[in-house]
Design brief:
By secondary structure, the chain is of the alpha+beta class. It contains three helices and four strands. The protein is extended.
Length: about 90
């Protein structure tokens, strides 16, 4: 997730996960946190969750994978398995 107002980012690995921390904070709509629903609306350009799937991430990740596949001979592009993506 890339926040509109974020200016800095930090990455780390906490096995088995890769973590990204976007700054400044205050972008979460969860009650009792540093953010609010209004902050969320202000910082998110559009909703990426459609039918239980993050369509923004899937689109970007698919493109990145297919760009790498171009380096291989006779390797057709992949497509998104929407049912699997929703299950994740």
């Amino acid at each position: 997730m890339v926040w509109r107002n974020s200016e800095k980012i930090a990455f780390g690995v906490r096995s088995p996960w890769v973590v990204a921390w976007y700054c400044p904070g205050g972008n979460t709509p969860a009650p009792g946190t540093s953010g609010s629903g209004a902050a969320y609306e202000k910082n998110v350009a559009r909703t990426c969750i459609v039918d239980g799937m993050n369509v923004c991430y899937n689109k970007l990740a698919l493109q990145a994978h297919n760009d790498k596949r171009l380096n291989h001979e006779n390797t057709p592009p992949m497509s998104t398995d929407f049912d699997a993506a929703k299950a994740i």
